[in-house]
Design brief:
alpha/beta; Rossmann fold; six-stranded mixed β-sheet; 16 helices; 13 strands; binds pyridoxal-5'-phosphate; binds zinc ion
Length: about 425
């Protein structure tokens, strides 16, 4: 793959050839996360803003020369990427801001941002001739792998905490995955999946371990910048669990800066739940994430519940190198953000998606953003993923349905006529 120079350990800088099943630096075990290092001259000879303007493919594969797959590798048929970027003036005005957009990745084929990574996982597993792919997940990465695997008839084994929302488990079973409901946390599911992958030789999609996952996630930054006519925003808000999405957001922007397609690096603000604040705490206290012990994570936003964020090196790099920050939000603020975002934009988010907006709300109150900043909030998952939380959030606003008999009289009475 001539557009890739090598894979490079984030800890020691050692480099490796870009094999599809090269995961981590052996000198640093599972902590030795690798970055994909590109040859931007080769990339610039294959793709440009002008060639993109002529390309009718709306999916992430319009950026194929920028992602770590062979030019002739077949890609899964589902429509991954190409999600809408909505300008949201009412939402902005409510916060005293002038320019806010919502990037709605609830509109992916399995209804979360994770499809961007799992699409790459499918291609890499096939390049590696793997019989079986596996992943652990809080639910969405699993559903994404499960759906994309179904689209190409790829056997897979999934590990999720037994407490995952029903909708996510329903997706796994419906797509025909082999499903392990682990009695324990996401962190337990992760360790078990890693052990199983090792024992059975499965292709390992795990977040913060497989170096190619953030390379799929970075396509969101390409889309945001292309949708804004290559005028990069000033600030991007994204919720953070393992830290793979935020690392990908940064990597995409980094690529575009190297290519000279954008002229500045947006500040990236990572939003964590107060009860799952490993990275925010490390950021505030200046702690080393290679030695900081796991925390006990608890939050209503199941998708960002991570006691030991697996992609913490890339997450910290994203915030540090972009001049960004971490903010934390309470579960109450996350739930409140669901109907507020929905009513001001028409976008229905799951708790982890709404958390990014709750983070913007807090940042605006704290003066972390200014009125003229051009701000993008990424919704990472559909509200239909967790209807129980949505009902709870709606109840908190006092919203109640009227119970009526099928008669207009009842409707009039309900309306108070
Ligand atoms: C996975 C996920 C996140 C967080 O992504 P990380 O890479 O784990 O930080 C946020 N929101 C949703 C809906 C997700 O599924
Ligand atoms: Zn190393």
């Amino acid at each position: 793959m001539s557009h890739i120079k090598h894979l490079q350990c984030l800890i020691c800088g050692r480099t490796f050839p870009p094999e599809p099943d090269r995961y981590v630096c052996p000198d640093h075990g599972n902590e030795g996360i690798l970055d994909v290092v590109y040859d931007y001259d080769v990339i610039a000879s294959r793709i440009s803003p002008q060639s993109l303007a002529q390309n009718p493919d709306p999916t992430i594969w319009r950026y194929k020369p920028l992602v770590p797959v062979a030019p002739d590798s077949p890609v899964p048929p589902l429509t991954v990427g190409g999600t809408p970027l909505y300008e949201t003036p009412r939402l902005a005005a409510g916060l005293g801001l002038n320019h806010v957009w919502v990037k709605d990745d609830g509109r992916e084929p399995t209804a979360s941002f994770k499809d961007r990574a799992s699409a790459i996982a499918i291609v890499k597993a096939r390049e590696a001739d793997a019989a079986i792919i596996t992943t652990a997940s809080t639910g969405n990465a699993a559903a994404a792998l499960s759906g994309l695997a179904a689209s190409v008839n790829q056997p897979n084994v999934i590990f999720v905490p037994a407490s995952a929302p029903q909708a996510k488990i329903a997706q796994l079973l419906t797509f025909g995955s082999t499903v392990m409901l682990v009695e324990g946390t996401y962190d337990d599911a992760f360790e078990l999946c890693m052990e199983a992958a090792d024992a059975f030789g499965w292709y390992n999609r795990n977040t913060g371990y497989n170096p190619y996952m953030s390379e799929g996630k970075k396509t969101v930054s390409y889309e945001i910048c292309e949708q804004l006519d290559w005028q990069a925003p000033d600030v991007i808000f994204v919720s953070v669990g393992d830290g793979c999405i935020i690392g990908g957001v940064y990597k995409g922007l980094y690529d575009l800066l190297q290519l000279g397609w954008i002229d500045h690096m947006p500040r990236i603000i990572g939003v964590q739940a107060r009860g799952s604040n490993y990275l925010a705490e490390a950021w505030e206290k200046g702690e080393d994430v290679l030695t900081k012990p796991p925390i006990d994570a608890h939050t209503v936003a199941d998708s960002i519940s991570a006691g030991l964020p697996r992609d913490r090196l890339k997450a910290m790099r994203a915030v540090r190198e972009s001049g960004g920050a971490f903010v934390t939000v309470s579960d109450e603020a996350i739930l409140q953000a669901i109907p507020e975002l929905a009513q001001k934009t028409g976008v229905f988010a799951e708790p982890a998606g709404a958390a990014a907006y709750a983070g913007l709300r807090k940042a605006a109150a704290q003066g972390l953003v200014s009125p003229d900043d051009r701000i993008v909030v990424i919704n990472t998952g559909s509200g239909l993923k967790d209807v129980t939380s949505a009902m709870k959030a709606a109840a908190m606003t006092g919203a109640e349905p009227y119970f009526v008999k099928p008669s207009l009289e009842d409707v009039k009475r309900a309306l108070g006529d």
